[in-house]
Amino acid sequence: MNHETSFNPALGFSSAGLVVTVLAIVALWRVFAKAGYPGWAAIIPIYNVYVWLKVAGRSGWWLLLLLVPLVNLVVVIVVSLDIARAFGKSGVFGFFGLFVFSIIGYLILGFGRARYTAPGPR
């Protein structure tokens, strides 16, 4: 068997996963910074979800709702809509941009002209 020409699909998936993860971190970092929160929060598990909820103007207690199956889906949609509104975007952008195509939507918020209009850090 010629090992020089063998293809390892796991390596391709791992590389793609790494790219998606880095893009998600960069996007959230910029969105958090625009909203007045520390950008580095994007890389801290659980804390990043707490900050994400705060950017949306929601209580940190909503984090517990994310642990409930099916309820978590509704919470993510509601928070996506809230964040879109906080950045002056429509509900359509919130659903499709931040919920369905989240990385692209958060990159648009982070690097675009959108301004955060909701209350800052409390």
Automatic annotation (TrEMBL):
TM helices/strands, residue ranges: 7-29, 35-53, 60-81, 93-112
InterPro entries (UniProt xref): DUF5684 (IPR043739)
The protein's UniProt keywords, in alphabetical order, are: Membrane, Transmembrane, Transmembrane helix
Q: What is this protein called?
A: DUF5684 domain-containing protein
The answer to whether the entry has keyword Transmembrane is yes
Query: What organism is recorded for this protein?
Result: Amycolatopsis albidoflavus
Q: Does the keyword Ubl conjugation apply?
A: no
